[in-house]
Amino acid sequence: MFASFGQGANLDRSTIKGPIIGGPFSLIDTEGRLVTQRNLLGNCVLLYFGYTSSPDVGPSEVQKMVKAINILESKQKLKVLPVFVTVDPQRDTPSQLRAYLREFDPRIKGLTGPVAAVRQMAQEYRVFFKKVEEDGDDYLVETSHNMYLMNPNMEVVRCFGVEYSAEDLSEAILMELKRAGMQKVDAT
Prior knowledge:
This protein is of the alpha+beta class. The protein contains five helices and nine strands; from the N terminus they run E-E-H-E-H-E-H-E-H-E-E-E-E-H.
């Protein structure tokens, strides 16, 4: 007798593969230098897609990213590189991005670029964003506000949504890195 899915089937989850998230990109950093995924190899990266004129969720997500990285660094001596990719490259020039990110933490690597390059990267990372017209020439950007934990090979390890607090985020990152053998487990 065979068990059907949803009725107690014993499924080996390690053999199930979802859609590939991520891929090559070519953007510009806050100093005007070309950055590709190869430049980030060798780092654990926390990647966030946002925009500098976000009125509320964006700034709180960047603050959460910084706080989580501070927790990991101070309590676990673990370095995670924070990377902010704009989904509003028309307004977020390298200098605009630099000024914005310095308000939060100078360690955040900001990336922008031509609209087509940003759109391609967002598609590769399955990031939703859409321009919403406001009065006059003003607009907001609806976006999914996801963060991605990337391993040193620039492969997505896990995606995090807005429901995580900084403490929960740092704990989840630590658990993922321990599980993947990228962090020594302290036996004390």
